[in-house]
């Protein structure tokens, strides 16, 4: 059987590029750039990229399988005007997108998270809408299609003070995506379309770039290791702790909640050749450099330093 290769070329490795991303540089032209959030299998994104060759298309999606399917479609259609980001949009819109860069942003059937306790997981919160306003060009349009009445009204409420004029209409199916087909098969004949037209800047100040510091401590005491949790705008809880004395390595699991964004990752504390201990987020956990992640590292560092002082003093006395 003939092997099939799918180029990873259209997938942007956002850990290695300058942020915010310079789309003119990425596409090597200054054509308008359109962003789709949560593209799923990418049917609509690819269809538009094929028919609107004078525009560039960027898709964000958090699931690998979806990204993979979209990459396959890009390869099959030999498209050069599409790029994909495998990222959580709740983080990416704040850290990767830049200001005044998109002519249009849209999302088809975003997860409505209907349960009250999951409201914080919804995309298109007031903070997110303000940020999306910033990343649109003047007069740019953000539109969202949903089957969910509650979610449609929630988005309208969230748009308060975001600099958008809001239009609400009902439209028939026309996108041909997996979720549209699913709802049509379940009998739905029309969907909510919320169109937000940028009328003024939202005055939202983007957060600065976070640089994750690696800490060094001279002593490390692994017994009963439990740094204090962090409370406030950012919530950090420390969970499991694993220690391997032979390898001089410990792993501490941290759960960081900041705004609508949750990260669950391991912090590595390892001894280097000079005998000192390094505290850093462990590689391979898919963490993202945020204020919350920095606070988690700060808390571990503060705890290690405090224990080092206490235990050192106890040893001396
Ligand atoms: C209900 S599906 C809709 C998919 C597609 N637009 C369609 O119409 O078939 C929602 C999609 O958004 C993606 N998604 C949900 N939350 C996301 C987030 N925070 N960042 C990026 N993608 C997200 C999901 O992985 C999923 O593919």
UniProtKB/TrEMBL annotation:
Tell me yes or no: is tRNA processing among this UniProt entry's keywords: yes
What does the record give as EC number?
2.1.1.33
What does the function comment of this entry state? Catalyzes the formation of N(7)-methylguanine at position 46 (m7G46) in tRNA.
Q: Which GO terms describe its cellular component?
A: tRNA methyltransferase complex
Residues reported in the UniProt entry to bind S-adenosyl-L-methionine: 36, 61, 88
* Residues that hold substrate according to the record: 115, 147, 177-180
Give the taxonomic lineage as stored in the record.
Bacteria, Pseudomonadati, Thermodesulfobacteriota, Syntrophobacteria, Syntrophobacterales
- Pfam families according to UniProt: Methyltransf_4
Put simply, this protein is called tRNA (guanine-N(7)-)-methyltransferase
- Keywords annotated in UniProt: Methyltransferase, S-adenosyl-L-methionine, Transferase, tRNA processing
Q: Which family does it belong to?
A: Belongs to the class I-like SAM-binding methyltransferase superfamily. TrmB family.
Catalytic activity, as annotated = guanosine(46) in tRNA + S-adenosyl-L-methionine = N(7)-methylguanosine(46) in tRNA + S-adenosyl-L-homocysteine
| Top enzyme category | transferase
From the UniProt record, give the pathway where this protein acts.
tRNA modification; N(7)-methylguanine-tRNA biosynthesis
Organism from which the protein derives: Thermodesulforhabdus norvegica
Q: Does the keyword Cytoplasm apply?
A: no
User: What HAMAP family would the database entry show?
Assistant: tRNA_methyltr_TrmB
Q: Which GO terms describe its molecular function?
A: tRNA (guanine(46)-N7)-methyltransferase activity
């Amino acid at each position: 059987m003939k092997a099939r290769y799918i180029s990873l070329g259209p997938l942007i490795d956002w850990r290695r590029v300058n942020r915010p991303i310079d789309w003119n540089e990425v596409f090597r032209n200054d054509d308008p750039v359109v962003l789709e959030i949560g593209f799923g299998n990418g049917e609509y994104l690819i269809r538009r990229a094929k028919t609107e060759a004078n525009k560039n298309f960027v898709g964000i999606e958090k699931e690998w399988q979806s990204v993979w399917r979209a990459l396959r479609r890009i390869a099959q259609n030999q498209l050069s005007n599409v790029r994909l980001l495998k990222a959580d949009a709740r983080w990416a819109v704040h850290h990767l997108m830049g200001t005044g860069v998109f002519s249009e942003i849209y999302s088809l059937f975003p997860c409505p998270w209907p349960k009250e306790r999951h409201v914080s997981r919804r995309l298109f919160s007031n903070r997110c809408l303000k940020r999306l306003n910033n990343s649109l060009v003047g007069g740019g349009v953000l539109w969202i299609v949903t089957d969910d009445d509650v979610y449609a009204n929630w988005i309208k409420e969230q748009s308060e003070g975001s600099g958008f004029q809001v239009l609400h209409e009902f439209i028939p199916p026309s996108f041909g995506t997996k979720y549209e087909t699913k709802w049509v098969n379940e009998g739905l004949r029309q969907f909510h379309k919320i169109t937000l037209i940028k009328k003024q800047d939202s005055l939202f100040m983007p957060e600065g770039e976070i640089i994750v510091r690696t800490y060094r401590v001279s002593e490390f005491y692994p017994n009963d290791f439990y740094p204090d949790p962090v409370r406030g705008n950012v919530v950090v809880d420390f969970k499991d702790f694993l220690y391997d004395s032979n390898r001089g390595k410990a792993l501490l699991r941290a759960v960081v909640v900041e705004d609508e964004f949750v990260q669950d990752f391991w912090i590595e504390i390892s001894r280097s050749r000079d005998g000192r201990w390094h505290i850093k987020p462990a590689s391979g956990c898919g963490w993202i450099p945020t204020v919350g992640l920095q606070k988690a590292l700060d808390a571990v560092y503060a705890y290690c330093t405090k224990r080092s002082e206490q235990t050192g003093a106890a040893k001396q006395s």
